[in-house]
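EI: anyone free to look at a 149-residue chain?
SC: sure, send it
EI:
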Amino acid sequence: FRAITSSYYRGALGALLVYDITRRLTFDNVEKWLKELREHSDPSMVIMLVGNKSDLEGQRAVGIEEGAAIAEREDLFFMETSALENKNVEEAFMQMISKIHEITSKRRLEAKRKEASAAGALPPPGSGQAIVNIHEVSATKRKGCCSAG
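SC: here you go
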């Protein structure tokens, strides 16, 4: 079983590590699963700790602060969800996907920068010159001699 599961981690960009807030044992196993994830995956893998069944507040065995504490200590994203009520389920996936996109975009930009720099098309980082991504810059009005603002 272990040999098969480690192959699933290869190439993964993100993981949801889910525990049941009504069953302490599932939370106690989080560190074991986190260790396994980190041993078999890329160090930049986005990992979100998810406490599920938040609709069963009266049966809670794991406090929200406990989940938040382990997430902070291990540098994970954290959220509680209720699959039954469809509460925060989509948000958990969207937050993870957003972070994965951010990381992969930065990698692509850095690779393009290195490629262009090696070809002599761009100055090296730290040379005082900057690359501006026109898709990330918002237009602003500037006051000056030619503007009405």
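EI: The chain has five helices and three strands.
SC: 👍
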